[in-house]
Write a structure and sequence with these properties.
Shape: elongated
Number of helices: 11
CATH topology of the largest domain: Outer membrane efflux proteins (OEP)
Helix content: 55-70%
Oligomer: single chain
Number of domains: 2
Number of strands: 4
Low-confidence stretches: 1-17, 19-28, 62-67, 139-145
CATH superfamily of the largest domain: Outer membrane efflux proteins (OEP)
CATH architecture of the largest domain: Up-down Bundle
Length: about 500
């Protein structure tokens, strides 16, 4: 900081001369100094962001476009059961509870640093018992005597450290920025866990649909096997057809059994996310899959306000910037005003009386004259920490932009694939219908039916797998866009002492 450009220097230039004026000037200097800070002016680190996402061309926006801004972004899927599970996660997840406790710790640090700006008041009262000996000596004689006395003390003291160089206020600013970063971390972990639960739920529902598909297929294959066995007994078909029908049926039954452990894994994961033991949770099968929602895509610049991890990274930059001012303030003296008074007496009966009163008042100026370069090293360290947090912030923004681009292109490719996959599925169903009719009419053998049935089932399962991928990608895109989180609203709620709900 250039002293010639400070408010203090400008004020001193215009101070009048004289004793009274000097006192006035000294008071003015203290006021001006109390507004002095030594940290660099904070500016959000520069980072060029594109005007639009590369993959957003042709994207179908949701209507209304503020659907996610309400916060409960999972409601876009229109599933009441899912809504209840996420609300349970918000209340019972233990990882969220850990981050919430960390946020309360950071809030306590803010209150503590704010309290350091005010005078402290101390009261003490006590009794001491002491002895003092006196002695005299000459060439031939020495003697000593001692006495024991009680002393009663009551004292009230006031101490106030004037924040001349902004050390206390910069500490408060650093702690406040750290608390906001902690609040954003809480929102980020909550969003991440909500995203994980919604993905697990949607994949579980797709498995339920796959289970219904395989159960219906097993029923069909059982009828086909029975029909083939009857034809074999009648001499219409050979044993190879029966073997093929049995192979087809058993393979499908095995696939059906395999779905049980997959579903159990998702169910157990959902239970733990809600803070429950897997043994205490069960999710009944559903006969429908939540529909794929339309997602409002924000501009890249809005990502800085909508993603809690980016907001946390920026608040860490702010905290590091304020820490530079704290380190610089160590070069300047600390001024503490203190005042104390009370009563002291050797007799309890007249302890609190006017003749036994005492008082003291005075300022104390303290500063380090030589420390072997420790303060300079600390300033250099805080500057390096600041540069590190700036790099982390920029990398976090770039990662956020990449994630959005990745999920946008993934959903677009999945959408194009879904069109072709639906056409292939329709053709496979029609081919199966025609082949079964030909088989029932005795025009073709059962082996021809098996091939077509296998192709049709493969297309059915591929279509469900694609739907599963699209649903998961939609959740990931919403999370990459920040969910329903808003930086200004969240930090305003944090100032009121309430952790923002995502």
């Amino acid at each position: 900081m250039n002293f010639a450009q400070t408010p203090l220097h400008r004020a001193l230039r215009y101070l009048p001369r004289g004793r009274g004026s000097r006192l006035l000037g000294a008071g003015l200097c203290l006021v001006v100094l109390s507004a002095c800070t030594l940290s660099p002016d904070y500016h959000r680190p520069e980072l060029a962001t594109p005007a639009h996402f590369k993959q957003v061309e042709g994207w179908t926006q949701a209507t209304p476009s503020d659907a996610i801004a309400r916060g409960a972004w999972w409601e876009l899927y229109g599933d009441a059961g899912l809504n209840a599970l996420v609300e349970e996660l918000n209340r019972g997840n233990q990882t969220v509870a850990q981050y919430e406790a960390q946020y309360r710790q950071s809030q306590a640090l803010v209150r503590a640093s704010r309290g350091s700006l005010f005078p402290s008041l101390d009261l003490s009262a006590g009794k001491t018992r002491s002895s003092q000996g006196t002695g005299s000596s000459n060439s031939s004689l020495s003697s000593s005597s001692s006495g024991i006395r009680d002393t009663y003390n009551a004292q009230l003291g006031v101490s106030w450290e004037l924040d001349l160089w902004g050390k206390l206020r910069e500490t408060l600013a650093s702690n406040r920025a750290s608390a906001e970063a902690s609040l954003a971390d809480l929102a980020a972990i909550r969003l991440s866990l909500q995203s994980e639960l919604v993905q697990n739920y949607l994949q579980l529902r797709v498995i339920d649909e796959q289970k219904r598909l395989l159960e219906a297929t097993v029923t069909t294959y059982e009828r086909s096997l029975k029909m083939t066995q009857n034809q074999y007994r009648a001499g219409v078909s050979g044993p190879d057809a029966v073997a093929q029908a049995q192979t087809q049926l058993k393979s499908t039954q095995a696939d059906l059994i395999d779905l049980a452990w997959q579903r159990a894994q998702y169910e157990n994961a959902i239970a733990v996310l809600m803070g429950k033991a897997p043994a205490d949770f069960a999710l009944a099968a559903s006969d429908s899959i939540p529909s794929l929602p339309q997602i409002p895509v924000a501009l890249p610049s809005q990502l800085l306000e909508r993603r809690p991890d980016i907001a946390s990274a920026e608040r860490q930059v702010m905290a590091a910037n304020a820490s530079i001012g704290v380190a610089r303030a160590a070069y300047f003296p600390d001024l503490t005003l203190s005042m104390s008074g009370g009563y002291s007496s050797s007799s309890f009966s007249n302890w609190i009386s006017l003749p036994n009163r005492f008082w003291s008042v005075g300022p104390q100026l303290a500063m380090t004259l030589f420390d072997g370069g420790q303060r300079g090293a600390e300033v250099d360290r805080t500057k390096a920490v600041y540069d590190q947090t700036v790099a982390q912030y920029r990398q976090t923004v770039l990662d956020g932009l990449r994630e959005v681009e990745d999920y946008l292109v993934q959903l677009k490719v999945y959408g194009d694939e879904a069109v072709v996959r639906d056409e292939a599925l329709a053709a496979a169903r029609e081919s199966l219908r025609l082949t079964e009719n030909q088989y029932k009419a005795g025009l073709i053998g059962y082996l021809d039916v098996v091939n077509v049935q296998t192709t049709a089932l493969s297309n059915e399962r591929s279509a469900l797998s694609l739907l599963q991928g699209r649903l998961v990608a939609s959740v990931q895109l919403i999370a990459a866009l920040g969910g329903g989180w808003d930086m200004q609203q969240a930090f305003a709620a944090g100032e009121d002492g309430n952790a923002a709900e995502d």
